[in-house]
Design brief:
By secondary structure, the protein is α/β, with parallel strands linked by helices. It has 8 helices and 15 strands.
């Protein structure tokens, strides 16, 4: 199957997905910015490394698309974001690239729930049937006030058949609304005290099999009896250049080879604050995308993890993301499941 761009005349896709490991048929792949996005920057000490990040990110996205289409997955992807010179008047308005759609979207059953109103995410209306799109932010806050917490999204919860696992760090009004909203739809809501993005902590690869930063005891209530392979956190202290740069970027981002580039650091702090996350808290080994119960896309090679996967009849495919330490996002973040095979199942009761 070929990748697609949304067009007004094309038949739009209807959402169908229940679990993260059922056979993937259609996916939304994030997009970066155009290679000329920073041509307005005059200082080559800033422009050159940014152009390298953009060009290599676009190459890596092309590779992900190639791997997906070669495995019979239909890919929907927007055009690269172009620069709008009017934005120069307001640095904080520089738009976030539509690179990580899972951070602001959740697909469940026959709906895609949206929690951001930024222009860069309007692509969802080009590709998804209107009957499937739900503005979860407006639903939640039409009668309530936003308390500055996290939004529920595919990065901040796990939907495993009839069970939705949701961290308590979700903004309280949204957490309470979603608990009632999805319970009425027949789902069992389980809340946890996990910190950070759920997909930066664990991946559920097939019924009964989890890869996580936590041990089996941590999941005694949420996944009772399931096998858990615990991934040891990456040894940041062993990564050349990171320790010296960590304090300068406050642990938020890192570009290998640019640790002493104060011009890039200051520019990123002023103009790209919304582009970067907190990479020091992220472990990319667990951030994976399952094409099926037998095939999973990973960010990088991990000997012990890959041995475990192969022993469970799961084949890993490495899709390198060379600048994940800048974007603070892995292969799961870059994608949103649009359509998976299989029906709604109860994997726990």
């Amino acid at each position: 199957m070929n990748s697609k761009h949304g067009k007004s005349g094309m038949e739009k896709i209807k959402i169908k997905t229940h679990s993260p490991f059922q056979k993937l048929d259609s996916v939304w792949l994030g997009q970066c910015v155009d290679t000329s996005f920073f041509d307005w920057v005059k200082d080559d000490r800033i422009k050159d490394p940014l152009k390298k990040i953009i060009d290599e990110t676009n190459e890596d996205l092309m590779n992900v698309k190639h791997v997906l289409t070669n495995n019979d997955v239909e890919v929907f992807q927007d055009s690269p974001l172009k620069f709008d010179r009017d934005l120069l008047a307001n640095p904080i308005a520089l738009p976030v690239p539509p690179l990580q759609p899972r951070d602001v979207h959740l697909t469940l059953d026959d709906k895609i729930y949206c929690t951001s109103t930024e222009k860069c995410w309007r692509f969802v209306h080009d590709i998804v049937d209107p009957s499937c799109i739900v503005n979860l932010f407006d639903l939640t806050y039409k009668d309530q006030r936003y308390e500055n917490g996290y939004m529920l999204s595919g990065a901040f919860c796990y939907r495993i058949g009839k069970r939705i696992i949701m961290p308590t760090l979700i903004d309280k009004p949204m957490r309470e609304f979603c608990r009632n909203f999805f319970t009425e739809k027949g789902y069992e809501i389980v809340e946890t005290n996990d910190e950070g993005h759920s997909d930066g902590i664990m991946s559920v690869l097939k019924p009964g099999v989890i890869v996580s930063l936590e041990n089996k005891e941590h999941y005694s209530e949420t996944f009772p009896g399931w096998e858990v392979f615990t991934v040891q956190e990456q040894g940041w202290s062993k990564v050349d250049g990171w320790v010296d740069f960590k304090n300068k970027s406050q642990g938020r981002w890192w570009v290998p080879g640019e640790e002493s580039n104060e011009y890039l650091r200051e520019f990123t702090s002023q103009w790209l604050d919304k582009w970067v996350g907190f990479v020091s808290e992220t472990v990319f080994d667990v951030n994976m995308l399952s094409i099926s119960e037998e095939l999973v896309l990973c960010n990088n090679h991990h000997d012990e993890l890959f041995k475990f996967l192969e022993s469970r009849n799961i084949t890993p495919i490495v899709c390198p993301l060379r600048h994940r330490y800048f974007w603070d996002g892995g292969i799961h973040c870059l994608t949103v499941d649009l359509k998976r095979q299989g029906e709604l199942e109860d994997y726990f009761n």
